[in-house]
């Protein structure tokens, strides 16, 4: 047994966005995992990823629930202030999907015999896009996100040009469902609960999921600045361990009912979680908080994300892909995860 | 002439009015204010702002940031203020005050500085006034409910009074309900939770 570590800082502030995959943070606070590791954590809800990035960059928050590509984008200075960031823990895996408006989905359904036959779904979708009188409008939330890359990746895979065949727009998650039902958009690619809510409310149909497109991939991570990590190694370790234990708790199906009660508390997902309590999301969503490799911040996945950034023009052609492995290893700290979580 | 087109996105009427007047007196043109816009993409294209000032709490920040990267055809890219600034102090003041800004690519950063300083000053002033304004608008009975909900949130969340009030305010916006109604429902939920677990 080693002596308990002295934490450099006990009182922490963490930012989160009210999505289903902020669950590990909520569980760690409500079920006492932070406390167990000597931490007092205040959770702060943010309405945009941009504000999460800024408040972590400028030290208003110690860390945050972040989109997997965000620490990478911030380290490279692709948007906002150039601030080196890292992650030592992936909080969730998968959980993204493309949902279509009921009108678009119903029309597509007529020509699809088997929704599991993904290549024929893609081919029929392409036909319908090319036959549309007006370019179909598809929304995402944020440019440096799996949602955005998945959508472009999938469209390209079907031979659909994201610039000319469809119109890609951005909108806040809370606008997605109203926009889908009033016809302002034909589909969206977002994270949970926004796909399941459209299915529950019967205003949309599921086209495909992130898991079907890419296979298993990290979705959200615990992001901190490299400067913060260097100054607070023991607090960082405690934070990673507390959240890792919370991830195991959140994944356990025996805790499902209580998990949704916690998420439905007003400071977290509020009413959006109440609707999900008795709902089983489509199997293809494959959203996980724990399991084999789920919590490992894998530099190989970071390299893949750099490739996606390059493909959609977020990195300039002069950036050297040979450096991708090096950059990725400084951001996705598998080594810290392995050292700390045993 | 340094006259710039400023697009102001903020849903607090008192703050919008005060900032608009201040920017006018600096010689700038305030293009429009859009509370809860649903067609932000189109409005930004139509109004051609030199600078967009937006409340940090607005979910539309992500939409604005997407505009410059989503479509390669975007006629007039706007970039986040910080990308053209080495001025960490101003950025930090802005974030603390709850102001964020996007400027059209190529615009001289020094032309924006005075606008930022004005916005930061107005957001700072408003933030200390906000609770007072809310108080003046609500009845005594409602005020008591709000105070109680705030206290319960502070205890449950381990947060300060400011964050508890912000939580109530955001809930009211998200649910489309009045502050006292949200406060009462927060009290009901948290009482039930404490009863269950302790």
TrEMBL record, chain B:
It comes from the Bacteria. The keyword Phosphoprotein applies. PROSITE patterns: ANTAR, RESPONSE_REGULATORY. The modification 4-aspartylphosphate is found at residue 55. Pfam families: ANTAR, Response_reg. InterPro entries: ANTAR (IPR005561), CheY-like_superfamily (IPR011006), Sig_transdc_resp-reg_antiterm (IPR008327), Sig_transdc_resp-reg_receiver (IPR001789), WH-like_DNA-bd_sf (IPR036388). Keywords: Phosphoprotein. Residues 5-120 form the Response regulatory domain. Residues 126-187 form the ANTAR domain. This is ANTAR domain-containing protein. It comes from Neptuniibacter pectenicola. The lineage of its organism: Bacteria, Pseudomonadati, Pseudomonadota, Gammaproteobacteria, Oceanospirillales.
């Amino acid at each position: 047994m080693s002596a308990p570590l002295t934490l450099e800082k006990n009182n922490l502030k963490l930012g989160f966005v009210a999505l289903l995959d902020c669950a590990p943070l909520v569980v760690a606070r409500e079920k006492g995992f932070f406390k167990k590791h000597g931490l007092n954590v205040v959770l702060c809800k943010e309405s945009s990823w941009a504000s999460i990035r800024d408040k972590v960059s400028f030290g208003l928050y110690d860390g945050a629930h972040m989109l997997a590509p965000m620490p990478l984008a911030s380290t490279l200075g692709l948007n906002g202030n150039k601030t080196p960031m890292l992650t030592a823990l992936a909080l969730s895996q998968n959980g993204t999907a493309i949902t279509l408006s009921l009108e678009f989905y119903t029309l597509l359904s007529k020509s699809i015999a088997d929704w599991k036959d993904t290549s024929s779904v893609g081919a029929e979708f392409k036909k319908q896009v090319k036959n549309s009188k007006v370019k179909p409008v598809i929304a995402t939330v944020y440019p440096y996100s799996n949602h955005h890359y998945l959508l472009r990746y999938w469209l390209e895979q079907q031979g659909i040009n994201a610039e000319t065949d469809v119109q890609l727009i951005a909108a806040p998650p809370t606008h997605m469902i109203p926009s889908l039902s009033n016809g302002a958009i034909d589909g969206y690619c977002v994270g949970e609960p926004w796909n399941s809510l459209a299915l529950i409310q019967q205003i949309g149909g599921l086209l495909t999921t992130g898991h079907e497109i890419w296979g298993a991939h990290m979705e959200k991570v615990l992001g901190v600045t490299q400067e913060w990590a260097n100054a607070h190694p023991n607090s960082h370790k405690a934070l990673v361990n507390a959240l890792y234990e919370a991830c195991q708790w959140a994944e356990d199906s025996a805790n499902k009912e209580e998990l949704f009660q916690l998420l439905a508390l007003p400071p977290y997902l509020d009413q959006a979680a109440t609707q999900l309590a008795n709902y089983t999301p489509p199997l293809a969503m494959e959203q996980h908080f724990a399991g084999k490799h789920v919590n490992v911040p894998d530099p190989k996945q970071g390299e893949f994300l750099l490739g996606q950034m390059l493909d959609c023009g977020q990195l300039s052609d002069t950036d050297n892909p040979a450096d991708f492995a090096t950059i990725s290893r400084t951001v996705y700290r598998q080594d810290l995860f392995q050292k700390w979580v045993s | 002439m340094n006259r710039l087109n400023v697009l102001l996105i903020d849903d607090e009427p008192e703050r919008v009015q005060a900032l608009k007047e201040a920017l006018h007196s600096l010689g700038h043109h305030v293009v429009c204010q859009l509370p809860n816009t649903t067609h932000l993409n189109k409005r930004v294209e139509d109004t051609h702002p030199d600078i967009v000032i937006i409340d940090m709490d607005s979910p539309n920040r992500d939409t604005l940031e997407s505009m410059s990267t989503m479509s390669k055809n975007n006629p007039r890219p706007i970039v986040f203020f910080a990308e053209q600034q080495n001025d960490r102090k101003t950025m930090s003041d802005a974030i603390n005050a709850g102001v964020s800004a996007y400027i059209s690519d190529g615009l001289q950063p020094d032309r924006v500085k005075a606008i930022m300083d004005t916005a930061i000053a107005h957001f700072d002033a408003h933030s200390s006034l906000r609770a007072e304004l809310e108080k003046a608008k609500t009845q005594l009975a409602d005020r008591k409910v709000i105070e109680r909900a705030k206290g319960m949130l502070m205890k449950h969340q381990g947060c300060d009074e400011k964050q508890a009030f912000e939580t109530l305010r955001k809930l009211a916006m998200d649910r489309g309900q009045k502050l006292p109604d949200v406060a009462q429902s927060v009290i009901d939920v948290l009482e039930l939770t404490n009863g269950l677990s302790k």
